[in-house]
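Handout, page 2. Input:
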Amino acid sequence: MLTLVDREEISRGLAEGLGYQDIGRLISRNPSVVSRDVTRHDGRTGYREVVVSC
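Output:
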């Protein structure tokens, strides 16, 4: 399970244009875990570490 800190790092990595392998290395996770989480949460352009609902 990814932590909020992991998701923040994923979001930053995506904003910097990093690939899933690079992001995975940064957070010590398999790139497939990063890819699945990004896909599950609106893809590379829509990914945000925190979703706020009103």
